Amino acid sequence: MIDKATLKALERNLDAARERLLARDHAGFQRTLQRAQRGGKLDLARLDRDVEQAKLRYENRQRLKPKQIRYPEELPVVQARDELLAAIREHQVVVVCGETGSGKTTQLPKLCIELGRGTRGLIGHTQPRRLAARSVAHRIARELDGNLGDLVGYETRFDRRVSERSMIKLMTDGILLAELGRDHLLNAYDTIIIDEAHERSLNIDFLLGWLKRILPQRPDLKVIVTSATLDPEKLSKHFDDAPMIFVSGRTYPVEQRYRPPADDGDQEGAIASAIDDLWRGRPSGDVLVFLPGEREIGDTARVLRGRFANAEVLPLYSRLAANAQDAVFSPGRQPRIVLATNVAETSVTVPGIRYVVDTGTARINRFAPRTGVQQLQIEPVSQAAANQRAGRCGRLGPGICVRLYAEDDFAARPAFTDPEIRRANLAGVILSMTALGLGDIEHFPWLDAPDHRHVADAYRVLQTVGALDELRELTPLGRELARLPLDPRIARIALAGRGSAAEEMIWVLASAMSVQDPHEVPADAQDSARAKHAQWRHPRSDFLTLLKLWQQWRDWSEQANNRQLRKICREHFVSFLRMEEWEAVYRQVRDLLGGERKARPEANARWTNEKLDELFVPIHEALLAGLIDHIGHKLPEKNEYQGPRNRRFRIHPGSALAKKGPQWLMSAQLAQTSQLFARTNAAIEPDWLERVAPHLVRRMLLHPQWNATRGEVTATEHVSLLGLPLLTRARHYGSTNPVEARAIFIREALVGGAMQRKPAFLDANLKLVESIRDKEAKMRRPDLLAGDDQLAAFYDARLPAEVCAAAHLKNWLRRETGAQQTMTMAESDALRPGANADVESLFPDHLELGGMVLPLSYSHEPGEEHDGVTFHIPLAQVHQLPAERFDWLVPGLRAAKIEALIRSLPQTLRRQLTPAAEYAQALSARLTPDDGALLPAICAALQLMTGLRLAPGDFAPDKLDAYLLPRLQLENEQGAILGVANTLDGLRGRFSGAARTALHQAATRDESLQKWARENISDWDFDDLPDAVPLANGARGYPALSLEGQRIDLRLYESRESADAAHRLGARALLLARLADRRRDLDKSARLKLALLAAPFGLDAARIAGQLAERAAERTLLDDPIRSRADFQAALERRATFSLDAAARLDQLVNWLNAALSVRKALEGFATRWPLAVADMRAQLTSLFADGFVSAIPEANWGRVTIYLRALQVRLERLQNKPQRDEDLTRQVAPFATQLADLSHPARWLLEEWRVALFAQELKAVGRPSPQALKEALAAEQGK
Q1: Cβ atoms of residues 431 and 181 within 8 Å
Q2: Which helix (H) or strand (E) holds 699?
Q3: Is 1152 helix (H, G, I), strand (E, B) or coil?
């Protein structure tokens, strides 16, 4: 190990030799000594040899200095040569402020060589543009009588001509910036010239800041900063009051004219008028017009070509094709009007310009940090830029500059254009600084500090692409991105493609995004250009359009030489230079990323449309890696897209996707012009975003709930990216929050029973819970069942912590012996502490009535219709149950009902039965349903207990709560509800026919009952009829003959009453069918005797004969029930009696009709004199002999019909003597006559007896007919 004293001595010797060593060699030796000081090995002999060789290199470089340096005396900078030499010699930094044309760019490097610079390192000379770097290098080399690449060399992005002999190196500022990565202190240089500093690009500002930082560490380094317009004092202060040297330009006086525009906004017209004025009466000269952009140039060109037919109108802008640009720099025979953007301010010099027309505007590229959008807006130019424009017409002689704005406007403008650092995206700068270890951007010595909002957004972009972590530290990916000479977004795309099947395509696209669009659309050939470009257009992706163009370029390159290729490009409106630049960038990216893979054979394979479609997803997923925040979702019913950070934008009209935009979109660039446009777009799917940028995806789980279909707790997952909603879906909640998922699983799936496939324990537990709920409803006590928390605690104490889904539970039950038993509840587990659930005797589940068992159900929902006990009544049994039984309800509700009935009594009665609850309890214990109807039983019991006499009508059952009324629910065989009522009569009336039909259908289906379900009976050829036959569930059916129209059937009836009524008619019809011969005789006789008598009354003799036969059969054949074949035969034996009865009744009818006709004839003579009486008597006759009267007259009244007709004759006789009395009596009868016109009404015959009492008292009415009796009879019938 070398001792410290020796190392100190070596350091002193090295410092002494500094001036005889190249700067880079000296720096290398310093690093060697520093390693030795830290304990590293040091070979002294080798060090001595290396130092000697380094001295030789320095001496050899000294010999490269030209012996003679010539300066063009006409250049203003040469006039200041001595001042410049002195300043450079004496100061580390010098600021040279010289106007365009002063010669500073070409002569300053020569002055440095004259001072001996360039011997310890290169004289680095930066230029803002590649073209300038090459052309200046050519110019200096020629002035030094050398070849390019020898004494003077240059290096640009894709071209390098520098050798070991080079002393001056022209380069773009980006090249010098890239060298900082391997040479922090710029030891390869002994002099740095930063030219055109007034442009204030990001690169220039960064270099100025870095140079300020390293100058103390490089005292031997000289720095010269040149500017045409920049405030020199700012530069001087930046470099600690560095001296400023001012050099004038080679310009003539320029007259400034101000012509503010008219209010009509016609800029093209204002430009034409200004040119008219300039050319009127003055020497001809070319005019340079400054306009803000390509569109304005196209619009103005069309106007000027029409206005100035003898002039040549030429456009000039950066995207213009090379041949069109060349036309601007070539002299023409006609006066020229050059329409240019701000590219003509300083970047290029247009020859022959004598006049300038300045609109005073330019498209300025500004980055908006709030939206992350690059805005290319038209803005007023600064005073410095306006003066630069004016200076373009003072090169050949005195010039005139017409400013199309007011002088006050000019005076109010800022002195200088905002530097790029104040209006650009800083992501690339920050990434470079972080990778190079250059510190925090906000503490960097900038000439102008960047906007903190731009800085924040740049960090956001770098974190978005994964270059920096949340602490703003460089990630491994960020280190790789910094290696690539590309924008961070584009570098991220290139890296994303590495190793994929679409690797080459992605690198081609990354390269394309680093250069200007090669498509050219001249203003005068837009349609032709778009037609040529359409052959590459892809309907879903502008990126694939670029790949198709690339493939076309490769095809052309293989088939044509350079000259031919230029021609092909011109014909297809493609920029040859930009295609070459694109290819050069691609090679650079491929070399940096591809390594040994760059020669793979698939790199040269053709990219067919099928191949592009096959690789659509991997291509665009790689693009998304860098453009992840350049996405958008189409807004409903709009052509707008919603992007991250609440941006809204439209697809640029030039995109293939403009006409029919996809739902989701990715864009290479969002640029603000007239509005925010997305350029170079592609359709994407939202699920790609999750895969590409998981670090940016935000997932929010909301509304966790049990999902029975999936058998797990799911939550609604809202997936968003940079604030933009991507999708909503259900997600297993247990993977995120197992504790809460388990609690929900217990509460919903187990306690709630919401599992589709229930394990045995859960099925048993749920049945237990349901049985307790039934008991609660029965007892009307909602306090038996344990609460959900208690039930959940039961499961929580037994269920393993990891079980939160149905699948987990199934696996645990299968794995753990005895788990089913452990999870099964006893009744005490499901009851509240201290609850008693013994209710079976008070609230039975079934009610047995006469062998029939009715299910009961209970509900405790006060205020609801189904509150209380429900009796489930089968349809077939609705007529077989005792109606009064249901009022008794069930034992557990009986006392409450009796108490409510007592409380419904009138107050005078209610007071005698207090306390009502005690009387109710006593009555409930004393009475049973066997005591008959409830209300009469209560009345009888209370009379015995208290002596109080009550009637059922004293109670008000309609005031009782719903749960104290029987709820009778009628159901069919399938259990479907047919109707609900509080009384059986309410159901019987509505469903009598349905019950009969159901019985018949049941009998038809049941073989044992089919003999009681026959049709078209013609004789008694069936078994004797029992009173009833048993049916299912204790019900009974009642067999009977049934008359269905003209057909006689045998069927079952739902009740004995309905069966008896039907059977009598059916048996009568069957008897008459067997007595057909007797019926024919009767019919013949009736026709002979009644034909003339019946006609005046509209009666049919045959119909009357049939009714007489039925009446005679009722009288003679059906005295006893006919339930057997023997009964039937016995009835037939009485056929003679039947015939005699029928004949006798026929003779009675003949007498009645003769009497009635006599009355009718007599009435005809009184119609006009006593119309009221005549109308009443006619109505009486019509009613007595209405169709069907033979069947309608009750047997008790049959013999009285003769009396009713005689009473009419008596009335007629008395009418003539006492008409007023008849009229008074008629008015008494009239109201009842109207109501009792129908013979079937039971009170109808009471009215006939009253007529006898009123009009023919001597004939003696039967009974005691009166108006009051009639009223009571009518009321009784209405009450039924």
Answers
A1: no
A2: strand 697-707
A3: helix
Q: Which element (helix H / strand E) includes 358?
A: strand 353-358
3 state SS of 677: strand
Helix (H, G, I), strand (E, B) or coil at 664: strand
Residue 245, SS3?
A: strand
CATH of the domain at 238: 3.40.50.300
- pLDDT less than 50: residues of the chain: 596, 598-602
In whole angstroms, what is the distance from residue 1050 CA to residue 319 CA? 106
Contact, 1253 vs 1241, CB < 8 A? no
Token code pair at residue 32: 């060697």
Secondary-structure percent of the chain, ordered helix, strand, coil, rounded to 5: 50, 15, 30
Q: Are 393 and 251 in contact (CB under 8 A)?
A: no
Whether 536 and 405 map to the same domain: the answer is: no
Task: Give the Cα separation of 339 and 291 in Å (integer).
Answer: 7
In 3D space, the residue among 747, 749, 750, 741 whose CA is nearest the CA of residue 714 turns out to be 741
User: Cβ atoms within 10 A of the Cβ of 523, count?
Assistant: 16
Residue 629 CA to residue 642 CA, distance in Å, equals 11
To the nearest 10 degrees (0 to 180), the angle between helices 1125-1132 and 1056-1074 is 50
Look at residue 911 and tell me if it is in a domain. Answer: yes
Q: Indicate whether 204 belongs to any domain.
A: yes
Tens of pLDDT, residue by residue over 251-268, are 788 999 999 987 666 889
Dig out the tokens for 662 from the structure: 């996809």
Residue 994's pLDDT is 83
Half-sphere exposure of 852 (CA within 13 A, CB side): 23
Do residues 346 and 227 make contact, with C-beta atoms less than 8 angstroms apart?
Answer: no
Tell me the C-alpha distance between 676 and 1103, whole Å.
98
Using alpha carbons, select from 1183, 1174, 1071, 1180 the residue that is nearest to residue 1127. 1071
Contact in structure between 168 and 111 (CB atoms under 8 Å): no
Pairing of strands 1036-1044, 977-981: unpaired
pLDDT at residue number 504: 93
Task: Write down the pLDDT at residue 239.
Answer: 95
- In the DSSP assignment, the letter for residue 645 is G
Q: What is the mean pLDDT of the chain?
A: 88
Give domain status of residue 791, yes or no. yes
pLDDT of residue 840: 72
Residue 567: other Cβ atoms inside 10 A: 12
Element (H, E) at 112: helix 104-114
Residue range of the domain that includes 1122: 1076-1142
The answer to whether the CB of 82 falls within 8 A of the CB of 245 is no
Whether 733 and 855 share a structural domain: no
Alpha-carbon span 687 to 694, nearest angstrom: 11
CB 1267 within 8 A of CB 1249: no
Q: Which two tokens stand for residue 371?
A: 């939206």
CA 573/CA 324 separation, integer angstroms: 12
Domain count, the chain: 8
The pLDDT score that the predictor gives to residue 601 is 45
- pLDDT score for 372: 57
Q: How far apart are CA 448 and CA 198, in angstroms?
A: 13
What's the confidence (pLDDT) of residue 344?
Answer: 66
- The pLDDT value recorded for residue 937 is 95
Residue 557 lies in a domain: yes
| Other beta carbons less than 10 A from residue 1140's beta carbon | 12
Phi/psi at 194 (nearest 5 deg)? -100, 105
Rounded to 10 degrees, the C-alpha dihedral 291/296/302/308 comes to -20
Per-residue CA distances from 544 to 270, 551, 586 (Å) = 43, 10, 16
Tokens of 1202: 């003769």
Phi, psi of 919 (to 5 degrees): -60, -40
149: nearest Cα among 127, 128, 170: 170
pLDDT at residue 408, as a whole number: 93
- Strands (E) located in 382-455: 399-403
In a shared domain, residues 37 and 119: no
Instruction: Please compute, for residue 1140, the number of CA atoms within 13 A of its CA located in the half-sphere on the CB side.
Output: 6
